[in-house]
Amino acid sequence: MQVWKFGGTSVGKPERMHSIRNLITSDDQQKIIVLSALSGTTNALLSIGESLKADQPGEAAEKIEHLKAHYDSFVRDLYKTSEGLTKGQKIIENEFSFIRSLTRIKPFTLKQEKELVAEGELLSTQIFQAYLEELEHDSILLPALEFMRIDADGEPELDYTERKLRELLRAHGDKKLIVTQGFICRNPRGEVDNLKRGGSDYTASLIGGAIRADEIQIWTDIDGMHNNDPRIVKKTFPIRALTFEEAAELAYFGAKILHPSTITPAKMFGVPVRLKNTMDPTAEGTLIANKTSDQVFKAIAAKDSITALYIHSLRMLNAYGFLRRIFEVFEKYKTPVDLIATSEVSVSVTIDKTDNLTELMAELRTFCELEEPDYDQAIICIVGNFSADQAGIALQVLKAMEGIPIRMISYGGTEHNISLLVHGRYKAEALNALNEGLFELKEA
Ligand code: ADP
Ligand code: ASP
Ligand code: MG
Questions:
Q1: In this structure, what DSSP letter does residue 145 have?
Q2: Dist CA 180 CA 343 (whole Å)
Q3: Ligand 1 pocket residue status of 221, Cβ below 6 Å
Q4: Using CB atoms within 10 A of its CB, is residue 136 exposed (0-12), middle (13-18) or buried (19+)?
Q5: pLDDT single digits (tens) 336-346
Q6: Ligand 2 neighbours by CB, cut-off 6 Å
Q7: Atom number of ligand 2 nearest to Cα 202
Q8: Sign of the C-alpha dihedral, residues 252, 256, 258, 260?
Q9: Fold of 298-439
């Protein structure tokens, strides 16, 4: 079995839904189809939530009716029969009546916000399943809320998903096409929750791992993982093959094409991940598996909104145990550290989760001296094959970065990653400079 995931733009227009139906029925293979919300919907739902949080029900109601009008016209173009259209309209009436009901709940809490934002995937999948039914395809909609669950730390419970999915597939596994929602799940309290923005990729990979799929395909609006961020750098090219490790580094360090955690379950079970373009299905895309090419520099990504902390030991020299004590504090506040640079008595670290920063810093201050943190930093991550025996690799990177101030460098964590910390204002400049220096791609 394969798992195919279609992102927001891939389902965002009726004609796109027509194309993905052609894609998924072009062979006879059984598939689990994971869908995101229609493009723009998740943002629109979050914006409705903002109005409700600000106690502006009138403004929220206006936004809701605007969104509903979009869906009304979407289903008018999608279905070919009056039975199909009636079904589509019923789905919209049901879901929007639930959305409207949320505007009457006061106060509007995080619980309601999560229920609201889940509506995007609930709408897209029901609308698509009704479309497959209209065309008499052998398909079923399996609700993700019955098999996707996160623990108290927000981490997916893969064992639970595996067990639940096995039961569901035993009951419905004869269907050729099994449609489900990306992104949404339940939390330990049984409430509706989600896997964070862009989480449908992660759903696909968790399902792929859980059922030991033959392949996970992520269908999006670009022909695979590019060598640099196409939103910032003009001349980029698709990479044909990446290892799980290389792709995981790029996703974690900002390549938006994949949710940061997508690769973990796929790698755990050795399930290949293929990135494909819905707008150009014949394009080769990117295959993420165990094989790679021996090219030195493969790709660059950047992660924004990074905070750098500068920590000094109060004891001078031979301060053993210092790192352990520091990292215990990061562990206590559930704050992952991305980059680390050390000297005899000082440590600099970067984090991107700052919700506990005040408490974390107060606790560090009980045994360290802290400088003022640097906010709005960016990690520039360069991925490739950097054999420790090969001279000149770091030189080439630093040469490309000539003229751009670098705050931290991490080299040698693996043979596949070099990371640099720069102020966010230099991010675009750094990505372009590295594109030119490492790939000889100069902007016109
Ligand atoms: P979807 O809605 O299908 O999940 P996303 O918008 O989340 O799509 O991801 C696809 C987008 O990721 C592309 O349109 C592109 O702008 C962006 N992107 C950022 N970095 C990269 C990269 N290195 N390679 C390819 N796409 C990238
Ligand atoms: N719809 C969700 C989002 O926009 C999940 C996804 O698209 O992957 O973040
Ligand atoms: Mg995405």
A1: G
A2: 50
A3: yes
A4: exposed
A5: 999 999 988 89
A6: 7-8, 36-37, 42, 120, 182-183, 197-200
A7: 8
A8: positive
A9: VC0802-like (3.30.2130)
With a cut of 90, say whether residue 350 has pLDDT above it: yes
Q: What are the phi and psi torsion angles at 329 (to 5°)?
A: -70, -40
Q: Where does the chain hold its CATH 3.30.2130.10 domain(s)?
A: 298-439
pLDDT at 242 over 90: yes
Query: Residue 381 CA: which ligand is closest?
Result: 1
| pTM, entire model | 0.95
Is the CB of residue 8 below 6 angstroms from any atom belonging to ligand 1? yes
List where CATH 3.40.1160.10 sits in the chain: 2-220
Does the pLDDT of residue 332 top 60, yes or no?
yes
Backbone φ and ψ of 383, nearest 5°: -115, 140
Q: CATH homologous superfamily of domain 2-220?
A: Acetylglutamate kinase-like (3.40.1160.10)
Query: 46 C-alpha vs ligand 2 centroid, how far in Å?
Result: 11
Is the beta carbon of 9 within 6 A of some atom in ligand 1?
yes
> Residue 224 above 90 pLDDT?
yes
Name which residue leads in pLDDT, 61 or 292.
61
Confidence of residue 318 (pLDDT cuts 50, 70, 90): low
Q: Which atom of ligand 1 is nearest to the CA of 227?
A: 23
Nearest ligand to residue 219 Cα: 1
Give me 294's structure tokens. 């021996």
Task: Decide if 425 contacts 380 (C-beta within 8 A).
Answer: no
User: What number does the ligand 2 atom closest to the CA of 120 have?
Assistant: 1
Residue 292 has pLDDT above 90, yes or no: no
